[in-house]
Amino acid sequence: MRQKIASVLIAFWKQNSIFNKLFVPLAWIFQLLTLLRKKIYYLKGQAKFSIPIIIVGNISLGGTGKTPLVGWLANELVKYGFQPGIVTHGYGSKLGKKNVVIVTPNSEASAVGDEALVLARTYQGPIVAGRKRVDAIRLLQETYPNVDIVICDDGLQHYQLARDIEIAVVDGNSRFGNGFCLPAGPLRESVKRLKEVDFIVVNGQAMTDEWPMTSTLGNKVSPVSTHQRSCVLDDFIGKTVHAVAGIGNPKRFFKMLQNQGIHVIEHAFSDHYQFKQSDLQFKDGLPILMTEKDAVKCRQFELENAWAVLLDLSLPTEFMEKLLRRIQSGQKVIRHLSLPNLQATTHL
Question: pTM (2 decimals)?
Answer without folding.
Answer: 0.89
